[in-house]
From TrEMBL:
Molecular function terms, GO-annotated: 3'-5' exonuclease activity; DNA binding; DNA-directed DNA polymerase activity
Keyword Ligase: no
This protein's record includes keyword DNA-binding: yes
Biological processes annotated in GO: DNA strand elongation involved in DNA replication; regulation of DNA-templated transcription
Residue spans crossing the bilayer: none
PANTHER family with a match to the protein in the record: BETA SLIDING CLAMP, DNA POLYMERASE III SUBUNIT BETA
Name of protein: DNA polymerase sliding clamp subunit
Subcellular locations according to the entry: Cytoplasm
Taxonomic lineage: Bacteria, Bacillati, Actinomycetota, Actinomycetes, Pseudonocardiales
Species name: Saccharomonospora azurea NA-128
Top-level taxon of the source organism: Bacteria
Keywords on record: Cytoplasm, DNA replication, DNA-binding, DNA-directed DNA polymerase, Nucleotidyltransferase, Transferase
Similarity comment: family membership: Belongs to the beta sliding clamp family.
């Protein structure tokens, strides 16, 4: 049996993504320790996890993934053939993404983490809205960029909102590390990052910088300012949340459409196989019951910033933050505060 971290390294997913798939009922662990709650995975699950990772790269919805993983081969073929037809119009861009992922840069020689340029740009866009733009606390006007051998994580918070985006790095050199980068500097780096297939975040004695390989073979560099300070312990905030009363798995686009149609505070109420969002009903898989209100202008950006075709809402209580989670190879987590209903 492998721990969740060891299994994650083996199959190219992050531990948080594996937890997401467990919570959604797609890839439960082989065993859960009844005393500690630790998840353990067997070698027999490697194929399913690798297939799951590939299917998520192809943007296959979770409901279809479950059919592929648990159904007969003929069912899996029918599901995947139907999905392939839906993706036909996007085949050129998908092929370009695969080619970009296959291209490798020369082995780095510094302490650094490497990730796709488009992935990094997307992650910056997703978390930047949660960072403070004013105030006396410099750390809150920054994005925490931290990495280990398993994951590259971008975190932003203004103490009212929290956004955490995890990516699977293509390579890591040196020990786990972190740097606080002003959010405005990262936003300014977006156009630069998206132009390169692979971007390396290098942290050295002379400071932080982004490095990429140009088409002419010479390296391109973009210095990054950094802030010395202590970023809030976001893990304590997440761990302090009570047990979730209800989980809702639904289609991200359908939920966004329902929120866009709402006028003012929208009431979200779970049903047997759906969630009612204002006047709209969206198909969903619900575990538990809940009724609470949201400001669409707050919930919609959190859902829109997600990754993959599905979103998981973990509802604690009508007066406690709701956790909005999604995942592809990595994961995106943000907290949204409900609105009290009369």
């Amino acid at each position: 049996m492998d721990t969740i971290s060891a299994f994650a390294r083996r199959v190219g997913l992050t531990p948080s993504a594996l937890r997401f798939y467990d919570d959604c009922g797609v890839l439960p662990p082989a065993r859960v320790d009844p005393d500690t709650g630790y998840r353990y995975y067997s070698a027999d699950q490697e194929h399913a996890a690798a297939l799951l990772r590939t299917l998520r790269q192809a943007e296959v919805p979770l409901a279809d993934i479950t059919a592929v993983l648990t159904g007969a081969p003929s069912v899996a073929r029918d599901v995947l053939t139907a999905h392939a037809r839906r993706l036909r119009a996007r085949a050129d861009s998908a092929h370009a993404a695969v080619e970009a992922a296959l291209r490798m840069v020369e082995l780095p020689t510094h302490g650094e983490v490497s990730v796709g340029g488009a992935e990094l740009a997307s992650a910056i866009r997703q978390v930047q809205s949660a960072a403070a733009r004013s105030g006396d606390i410099a750390e809150l006007r920054c994005v925490l960029v931290e990495w280990t051998a398993e994951v590259l994580r971008l975190v932003a918070t203004d103490r009212y909102r929290l956004a955490v985006r995890e990516l699977v790095p293509t390579s890591v050199v040196g020990p786990a590390n972190h740097v606080l980068v002003p959010v405005d500097a990262l936003v300014d780096a977006l156009p630069w990052a998206v132009r390169h297939d692979v971007v390396r975040c290098v942290l050295a004695s002379d400071g932080a910088r982004l490095v990429a390989q140009r088409s002419d073979g010479d390296p391109a560099e973009l210095p990054l300012p950094s802030v010395d300070g202590e970023f809030p312990d976001y893990r304590l905030l997440l761990d302090a949340l009570p047990a979730r009363e209800c989980r809702v798995v639904t289609d991200r686009v359908a939920l966004l459409d329902a929120l866009a149609a709402a006028d003012g505070t929208v009431v979200l109420e779970t049903a047997a196989e759906a969630v009612h969002v204002g006047e709209r009903t969206v198909p969903a898989v619900c575990s538990g019951t809940a009724r609470l209100g949201f400001d669409p202008a707050v919930l919609a950006p959190a859902v829109d910033a997600g990754v993959g075709p599905d979103v998981l809402l973990e509802i604690v209580a009508p007066d406690r933050p709701t956790i909005v989670r999604s995942a592809d190879q990595g994961s995106f987590t943000t907290l949204v505060m409900p609105v009290l209903l009369d």
